Amino acid sequence: MTIDPVHYDGIAALASRIRHDADPEAHRDLAETVWAEHLDPLRTDGDPVLEPIESVTRRAAPIDDLALQQAPFETAHGLDSGTINPTTFKNGLLLDLAQAAMAAVPSDLDLHRARTYIMPVHSNDASVNHGTDGWDPFDEDHGRGRIVQTEALARDEERIVHGLALYLAESHHALEHAHRVEDVLFLDGPLYPKGLLHWRGRHGSIAELAGENDLVAEVLENYVALVETFLEREIPLVGFVKSPQSRGLIRALAETGRPSPWASDTAFFSQVLEQREGGGRRNERVTDQLSWTGWFRSRLGADAVFAGPEADLGVTRDRPAPDYEVAFFVIYDPRTELLFKAELPGGFAEDPAVRSAVEQYVLRGVAAERGPPLPIAKADELARIGSEGKAELVRRLEVAFDTSEDRNYDAERWGPEF
After folding, report:
1. Which H, E and C letters describe the chain, residue by residue?
2. What is the average pLDDT across 107-116?
3. What's the predicted TM-score (pTM) here?
């Protein structure tokens, strides 16, 4: 044991010195005020950045009833990608490996077998031969892999290598197998690769970054093409965010001079959607009902960039700008006290029937699975690379490179998952 009871007492006493006089009920009352008075629409500099598609509404229903309702789609597909995480070798190579997979409900074993692998490689040695950018087939053409060479887009090379692996694998796999989706496709994560915004570094905009880096441009083009493909086929494309981390809403509130004491948008929506017994907020939480918001169009934070003018994105688009906007609703599950977010391209969100079907499928799935809907859960299982798989892949890469992983004392002490 590294912490004794006396240490716990000392830490607790130390924490008690931190003053936090805010009343949770005051925060809840403030959330109610913002919800009722400031989101129809929310404006910054006179422009709407968050507006309801119909009205600012929230609903709730018994979890058992939602789980037992009929699925609005006969089939559903989910897509996810997983990586071994950035790994450095003693020969100076830094790389990651991502695999993307698509799941089907009901199951399609041939589709489940298909894989797309991306291996981004970074090295400061200009003499290193990174191979080819072409695709190499394997597993009787059920899979394909590709090596890409990355460059330092910011000071954090590991984050760049990791992000490109995930984004390229997911987007290429989705485009390759889009024709196999019949009713709806769920992406595990947001509709767009919003993590790219963190890479701008010395670049002034995403468009400038895309103009200087072919791989970033390829990622953006792939996601725009994915939205266009599904809009053309009239098959909904849904982003399901399991752990929303955005702060666009509370930043916008702060910019307009409104109080925003919440740590994240998730904290705000959780307070808005959490229910209390007997109509009094000071009573016990209701735990047998899911609650959810109506649909919003968003130009908050990254949403404004990816659905803004072509010049801001640096990617040519074939459809009107509103078709690419992000529309979303959020779901609160009191059993786990978790919030989920579902996103649709604006071109789909204009159709009430599509919104209703997606909403019904998501609510049914969250209620039944106590988490992400089944297509997402299955895709996550297919794409995940477990600790044993990661260790075996690293061993094989060590042999292929005739070198060894550049491990430090933390890895020696805590293991490869550190």
Report:
1. CCCCHHHHHHHHHHHCCCCCCCCHHHHHHHHHHHHHHCCCCEEECCEEEEEECCCCCEEEEEHHHHHHCCCCCCCEEEEEEEECCCEEECCCCEECCEEEEEEEECCCHHHHHCEEEEEEEECCCCCCCCCCCCCEEECCCCEEEEEEECCCCCCCHHHHHHHHHHHHHHHHHHHHCHHHCCCCEEEEECCCCHHHHHHCCCCCCHHHHHHHCHHHHHHHHHHHHHHHHHHHHCCCEEEEECCCCCCHHHHHHHHCCCCCCCCCHHHHHHHHHCCEHHHCCCCCECCCEEEEECCEEECCCHHHHHCCCHHHHCCCCCCCHHHHCEEEEEEEECCCCEEEEEEEEHHHHCCHHHHHHHHHHHHHHHHHHCCCCHHHHHHHHHHCCCHHHHHHHHHHHHHHHCCCECCCHHHHHHCCCC
2. 97
3. 0.93
